[in-house]
Amino acid sequence: MRQSVRALILLASLALAWGGWKGLNAVLAAGPVRPIQTGQGETTMPRSVRKTESEWKSSLTPEQYKVMFQCGTEAPFSGRYNDFWDKGSYLCAACEVTLFSSEAKYDHGTGWPSFTVPFSEANIEYREDSSLGMVRTEVRCSACGAHLGHVFDDGPAPAGRHYCINSAAMIFRAAAAAKPKTATATFAAGCFWGVEDKLGRVPGVLSTEAGYTGGTVPDPSYERVCRDDTGHAEAVRVIFDPARVSYDDLVRAFFSLHDPTQVDRQGPDIGTQYRSVIFIHDEAQRAAAEKVKADLGREGRYRRPIATRIVPAGPFYPAEEYHQKYFEKNKRGACAL
Q1: 3-state SS, one letter per residue, for 234-263
Q2: Please, are residues 176 and 89 in contact by the beta-carbon 8 Å criterion?
Q3: Nearest alpha carbon to residue 214 among 266, 284, 274, 290
Q4: Stretch 301-329: mean pLDDT, rounded?
Q5: Catalytic amino acids?
Q6: Residue 210 burial by Cβ neighbours in a 10 Å radius (0-12, 13-18, 19+)
Q7: Taking the model in full, what pTM does it have?
């Protein structure tokens, strides 16, 4: 045998030994494309998504069509999702059925996106693939029949499965940003224009709304409340993120923005609708409000006793639109706060 031939054989043997079985699969899978055909006696799931060849070609890129409907394979380490670790779901690029979760993705090192388990076994179809002189298990989308990749038994414990999937066969849908947990607080400290403006500036406060609460007349108007015969106080409902601002800190902010020793008034505004009140929404708020009130009293910050009442929250009636964010709309106000 010629020396050059022997050298080539030796180099090929070393390359295969170095790459191992995973590398061998990668090399063989990158062979020529072949059209999808349903063999005689082959069991497939009923297709929920059907299109003609021309429809598939028009809805997919040339690379996607080659991979998904001609069983092609993208080059290793070339796919957009090989080194991609955002949180979300991987969907079939042809029909958008969910295939895999980012939680199941891991780095197998062979150059293609790898997963330990599918999102749902019902969304995956398996077929025996005896092409290229070896027997492998092909993975397809059960909804449209598109070729996705292969599954091997060299994955991590406990299942030991390695879903080797082409990036071109998938699209990624990012996980929705988690909405912050919110809580509600309600305060009355005189004219609600100034109270809303100042509480709305506290970091962690997500929204504020001026309104009426604490009275006996349903759905009162501003004119009626101003007559001081409904029992309502001008109040502000606060939606806040407890992870950013505690209820205790909100109560302290409330006390700091007005004179809590005044009874049924605040500066020049006189009447029970201008009383100082903390409307608590649960017993935890009651305990926190009472503690802050007691602490301020012991600190001797005020020369007179704190007159602020702490009572259970009742129905809250939003004030007329022109009262909402009054300072922002008018760039000025008439409150004593």
Answers
A1: EEEEEEECCCCCCHHHHHHHHHHCCCCCCC
A2: no
A3: 274
A4: 93
A5: 164, 191
A6: buried
A7: 0.53
